[in-house]
Design a protein that fits this description.
Length: about 220
């Protein structure tokens, strides 16, 4: 993986960069948000790893600018802000996942690998649901001729629902699909991504076909 890492804490920055290099990955580490944006605009990265609290530009500002430019590369957000509300803000800004400090390097690596798999998975050329089409080669979604811009995580969730259309997809199934784990301690994260996916689908047409089955999970409704 080729990563852009923005972190102003020298201890965390050095340790994470060294760990990634030892695992065979490339990592450009910067300590400033403006510098991170400049590199993102001039280089191609597989994954962005951003701390929220950065000089010049915050991690949230970076995410907003990159997504507005059409950059769909996966983003993992590092945060010392531990409340659910604060994490929701990060996910709603366009991040694919978050990790709360302090963290174990092994968990960071696992999450990076998980979002990398989600963004590069190529199982079939195209799937359709009503007037919605999923281009699985380029990982794009269209309603008719209108493209719906989804993050890699949102795309993976919608793909999972479509592959199990008419069946309940549990939160546990989604956790296993997204993060290769059955850990359900962060199901609120699933709900945040699901709400964001629904909103994006609804902005381009009628009510989103994703229904919540209380206490069980989600189901893709009638075409």
């Amino acid at each position: 993986m080729n990563l852009l890492f923005a972190e102003d804490d020298p201890v965390i920055g050095s340790a994470v960069t060294q760990g990634l290099l030892e695992q065979g990955h490339r990592c450009d580490w910067v300590k400033d948000g403006a510098e991170a944006l400049a590199l993102a605009q001039s280089h191609q990265y597989d994954i962005y790893l951003f701390d929220i609290l950065l000089p010049s530009k915050s991690g949230l500002e970076l995410i907003s600018e990159l997504r507005n430019r059409g950059d769909r590369s996966p983003i993992l957000l590092l945060t010392a802000l531990g409340t659910i509300e604060e994490r929701v803000v990060g996910l709603n800004s366009g991040a694919d996942d978050y990790l709360v400090k302090p963290f174990a390097f092994s968990e960071l690596l696992a999450r990076l690998q998980a979002i990398s798999r989600r963004s590069s998975y190529r199982p079939a050329p195209q799937m359709n649901w009503g007037d919605l089409s999923l281009d699985l080669t380029n990982r794009r979604v269209h309603r008719g001729s209108v493209e719906i811009e989804l993050t890699p995580t949102e795309f993976s969730i919608f793909e999972m629902l479509l592959r199990h259309a008419g069946q309940i997809v549990t939160r546990k199934m989604l956790c296993e699909h997204l993060w290769n784990t059955d850990w359900e301690g962060e199901t609120n994260v699933i709900e945040v991504h699901m709400n964001r996916l629904r909103n994006k689908l609804e902005r381009t047409g009628s009510r989103a076909p994703i229904q919540t089955v209380r206490g069980k999970g989600y189901v893709l409704g009638n075409e």
